[in-house]
Design a protein that fits this description.
about 15% strand; 6-stranded parallel β-sheet; about 40% helix; about 300 residues; alpha/beta; binds NADP nicotinamide-adenine-dinucleotide phosphate; 11 strands
């Protein structure tokens, strides 16, 4: 199955209620396409470097998943790991080395960093060409100005899901819950871009009458990290609801969206897990392939 799969095939999997926007499936399609592109180019060494600093268990799992999927896509996964006691100087030096290494095409520094480290000073040396996470000031500036550059992976993954499931965006109202640099802010810009043409509203913890606001939207995207925040009361019939939030509740991973309650009202909905998380990884790998192309590797 590739990203050329016809519309009727991908949509027929809807389960009586909402269409389930299957991020695992789309991730696998994207990885298959990347792998095919690398094989077609005679298997050049496309390299994604991951940097893990400290012992955050969730970060360790995320990096392991990214490395596994990079390998599956036919890339080289180069990994640098620094302990909890790594100094600012050591962390910056590790990133600078990757920045100048001609064999490395994409650099991902797993966030959040341990307390005491200055994230900006560690990310800033990543050149825009290798900034496949799209989170340095240079990449975010390009995003705002509409210039070519790598887009942040989680917001890009949301856009890819909307595209893949033929969710109309032109003239549609979108409410994004959460205003972080990582998710909410870039999403607002991407949804409001020419070509996507939605009308985005950015909500946050001080927003009043959030449920009512969301009910006025065609598309609701929640990135608050508050388990069960989005109930059926937040949706109008047929709305699309995309869950970015991740919370751990008694060892289970749950999203911001009350999936069971919302699936009967929504027109399309992402599962959690299996929705936006895999798409973040897929977009990281797509950005890495693009980086390698621009750096002349294939
Ligand atoms: P963050 O920096 O903590 O931002 C959370 C945002 O949600 C803030 O803007 C906050 O408002 C808002 N918020 C919190 N509680 C709210 C409430 N009750 N009502 C309305 N807004 C509320 O978090 P983040 O880094 O953006 O991550 C958000 C979530 O997405 C987390 O659960 C994270 O684990 C998850 N995530 C998932 C992926 C993925 O691939 N699926 C990727 C990245 C992050 P204020 O600004 O007013 O405080």
């Amino acid at each position: 199955m590739t990203t050329d799969t016809p519309k009727h095939d991908i949509l027929k999997r809807s389960d009586g209620g909402a269409v389930i926007m299957d991020g695992n499936r789309l991730r696998d399609e994207i990885i298959a396409d990347i792998r095919a592109a690398i094989v077609k180019a005679n298997q050049p060494k496309v390299c994604l470097a991951t940097v893990l600093i400290g012992n955050n268990p969730a970060s360790r799992i995320y990096v392991r998943q990214k490395r596994r999927k990079a390998t599956e896509a036919g890339m080289i996964s180069h990994h640098v790991e620094l302990g909890d006691n790594a100094s600012q100087i050591e962390a910056e030096a590790a990133v600078r080395e990757l920045a100048t290494d001609p064999n490395v095409h994409g650099i991902l520094v797993q966030l959040p960093l341990p307390q005491g480290l200055d994230t900006s000073r560690i990310l800033n040396p990543i050149p825009p060409a290798k900034d496949v996470d799209g989170l340095t000031p240079a990449s975010l500036g390009r995003l705002v100005k509409g210039e070519a550059g790598h887009l942040p992976c989680t917001p890009l993954g949301v856009i890819r899901l909307l595209e893949r499931y033929w969710i109309p965006t032109t003239g549609k109202r979108a409410v994004i819950i959460g205003r972080s640099i990582l998710v909410g802010l870039p999403l607002v810009i991407l949804l409001g871009r020419k070509g996507v043409d939605a009308t985005p509203t950015l909500a946050h913890s001080r927003t009043r009458q959030l449920a009512e606001l969301c009910r006025s939207a065609d598309i609701v995207i929640s990135a608050a990290g508050v388990a069960g925040l989005v109930t059926s009361d937040f949706l109008s019939a047929g709305a699309t609801v995309i869950d970015v939030g991740i919370s751990r509740v008694s060892k289970a991973i749950v999203g911001d969206v009350d999936f069971e309650a919302c699936r009967n009202i929504a027109g399309a909905i992402t599962p959690m897990p299996g929705g936006t998380g895999p798409m973040t990884i897929a977009c990281l790998l797509q950005n890495t392939l693009e980086a390698a192309k621009k750096l002349g590797v294939l």
